[in-house]
Amino acid sequence: MQPAAVLGQPLTLKNGSTLPNRIAKSALSETLGSASLRVTPRLITLYKHWAAGGSGLLVTGNVMIDRRHIGEPNNVVLEDDRDMDLLRQWARAGQSAGGQIWMQLNHPGKQAPVVINSAPIAPSALPLKPELKRFFAVPRAMTEDDIQDVILRFARAAALAQQAGFDGVQIHAAHGYLISQFLSPLHNKRDDQWGGDISNRMRLVLEVYRAMRAATGPGFNIGIKMNSADFQRGGFDEGDATTVAKALAAEGIDLIEISGGSYETPALVTGNTGKVKDSTRQREAYFLEFAETLRKEVTVPLMVTGGFRSASGMAEAVTSGACDMIGLGRPLCVEPDLPQRLLAGEDVHSIVRPIRTGVKAIDKLALMEVAWYERQIHRMSKGKNPRRQDQGFWSLLDVMLLVSYRGLFNRIGKLRA
User: Fold this and answer.
1) What is the CATH number of domain 3-354?
2) pTM of the entire structure?
């Protein structure tokens, strides 16, 4: 089959819900909430733009479940129905071209900059690695009441998303945020029922899923984004990931998205690394080998995100059976119509490549790369087309002209003081 025919196949989930094709926009943090962390019309404009691009599934950026704990300035927080009208418009915008839209729900745990939150919570009172200590406060170890509150907040947010008309929700359990912290033996040193071996470390994500399912019913889509590994010695590994995925599959989860990395291993989140195996480079996707291993253990649909660039690479991943959905992030920041062109049969190849300034200290940071793509998201939210990817100095200048992160964080910190 030609790539367009492969990628254009619908995918019916276990609960009977059908995604019209195999291309998904993976979650990208939009930072388009208001200063008071509420939904804004710019999100509606943005998702109409992305919906028109042809993806069968759009996953929103991380919507936070607790306004006391956000990961970035201008996150959206969902705690009640005060923004229900705008939430409904957001859902309809994502569905406007026939695809589905799922809301990603998240809690940052200790991955919240100190200027935003000087008193974060986490499974254990352990800081991030030494290089990040000046930017992130040492967290307080969560009490049993804290844990139960987080579970209830995830469930409440899922029910509100369903009420607003979203087709589903996705639990963010990857990239070093709170649920990922519970899963990691490096960050979770608890000696109670929430820590220890993987059966205890995965207790939180299972309880979150169960509470969300009870709050929404069997017909509502619930997926998860989880790491294949956190790529740190002694951390969450592929064996742990397989155990968690099998447990969630047995519970009835609808879709598992595979990713990897955290703030402590940012190159694996941004893709801005030269250390890529030849086999990965040839097959494009960073986490496809783990997906192939996991496919032998579970029948739940799998989505792989990270590294896909060509029509042939995407189609081969689906045809091989390694995954069922292709997740795209950065490519859709610069070419939002890429899915439409893929499905039309064009032999396209994404223009995305690592942004390099030639300044080693800058090129190692995830911040500049992430901020540049965020800039393109903001352009689309204003009804403008994104810029094609510049290289080096011009990309850095674009980001510097957009925002001074130090000034932005300080301003938000003062607002929250």
Assistant:
1) 3.20.20.70
2) 0.91
